[in-house]
Amino acid sequence: MAGVFINYRTGDGAEAAVLLDEQLKEVFGPENVFRDRRTTQPGVHFPPELWRHLESCAVLLVLIGPNWLSLCDTDGRRRIDVPGDYVHDEIQRALTWRKTVIPVLIDSARLPKREQLPADIAELTERQFMQLRVPYAHLDLPVITEALRSHVPVRRTAPQPDPRSAPPAFGAPQPGAYSTYHDCAVTNGSGNATVNQNRDAQSGGRQ
């Protein structure tokens, strides 16, 4: 079950949600971080699965981008006001269930004023917020991660095998043998983690 639930608006915070998800699952484990388009498998009945993860989480991160409050549906209504809006309903339930709710302001976004929000989620404005600037994610993501450590158990790393009991690698010098590669080391590097956006682009369930 997810210890951290990422709440975000499609079209205003989806990129930041992926960045945050990638960071947090490395620290806390993917099983302890819920982001709908990664976690929910095809064919799963979406609403019950969503509420099950929300109920079990310790922290709801509400990602608020610059257009979070103003985005409208095809009828011109603010999405946050539309009945059945998942962003609204996730926040409302988390507040009702007395979860730890942390607004995360994306880039230049500001925390909405109480009178700008539906009454049942106006309490969001009273929660201490954090900031995630996408161009400076390397600075902000560690701060967010550190703040979550008191709420979510850190992923346990797998025990490393004892090198004394491991069989020698192919080509390694045997005891008493001589090798021209003795005392040489080879370091394998890796690039930055990449995000698979194909699945996100094809997944549904959230607006």
Description:
The protein has 207 residues and is an alpha/beta fold. Helix content is 29%, strand content 11%. Strands 2-1-3-4-5 form a five-stranded parallel beta sheet, sandwiched between helices. Strand 1 (4-7), helix 1 and strand 2 (33-34) form a beta-alpha-beta unit. The radius of gyration is 22 Å and the shape is globular. The model is unreliable at 176-203 (pLDDT under 50).
Summarize the structure.
By secondary structure, this protein is an alpha/beta fold. Helix content is about 30%, strand content about 10%. The model is unreliable at about 175-205 (pLDDT under 50).
Main attributes of the structure:
single chain; 29% helix; alpha/beta; 207 residues; 5 strands
Backbone CA Rg: 22 Å
Order of helices and strands: EHEHHEHEEHH
Structural class: alpha/beta
Give the overall average pLDDT: 82
Unreliable stretches (pLDDT < 50, length at least 5) are 176-203
Shape descriptor? globular
Which percent range fits the helix content? 25-40%
Largest sheet: 5 strands, parallel
For the biggest β-sheet, the strand order reads 2-1-3-4-5
Q: Calculate the terminal CA-CA distance, rounded to whole Å.
A: 23 Å
Number of separate strands: 5
Number of alpha- plus pi-helical segments = 6
Proportion of beta-strand residues: 5-15%
Any chance you could write out the topology, listing elements then pairs?
Blueprint: E1 4-7, H1 14-28, E2 33-34, H2 36-39, H3 46-56, E3 59-64, H4 86-96, E4 100-106, E5 130-132, H5 137-148, H6 197-202
Parallel strand pairs: 1-2, 1-3, 3-4, 4-5
Helix pairs in contact: 1-5
